[in-house]
Design brief:
By secondary structure, the protein is mostly helical. Helices cover 79% and strands 0% of the residues. It has 3 helices and no strands. The protein has helices at 7-31, 43-62, 64-94. The chain is elongated, with a radius of gyration of 22 Å. It holds the Pfam family DUF4229. Keywords: Membrane, Transmembrane, Transmembrane helix. The chain crosses the membrane at residues 12-32, 44-63. InterPro entries: DUF4229 (IPR025323), MFS_trans_sf (IPR036259).
């Protein structure tokens, strides 16, 4: 029995990977003083905020196909749930 992760799981892992990569790259740039550090103890927050701002457009461009695959998978699940709901409602309508 092989484990094949869902499209949503793969997309989430890839998105997290891009964020972590951005975080590490920005942390290195702040550490070597290429980018300014935050004020006082806010350095970690500053790096996380910049990583979030950088990783969002990167994910939008780089993860187009996985995002589309995830959307198809979610739409199929919603359609199956609607069909089951309609079948259950039709069974209930037959009982008087």
């Amino acid at each position: 029995m092989s484990f094949t992760p869902s499209a949503t799981f793969r997309y989430t892992l890839m998105r997290l990977g891009i964020f972590v990569g951005s975080f590490l790259a920005i942390w290195a740039l702040v550490y070597f003083r290429v980018l300014p550090s935050g004020l006082g103890d806010s350095n970690l927050f500053w790096v996380a905020l910049l990583a979030l701002v950088v990783s969002a457009p990167l994910s939008w461009v780089m993860l187009r196909r996985p995002r589309e695959a995830m959307a198809v998978q979610v739409a199929e699940k919603v359609d199956r749930a609607k069909e089951r709901l309609a079948a259950n409602q039709s069974q209930e309508d037959g009982v008087v």
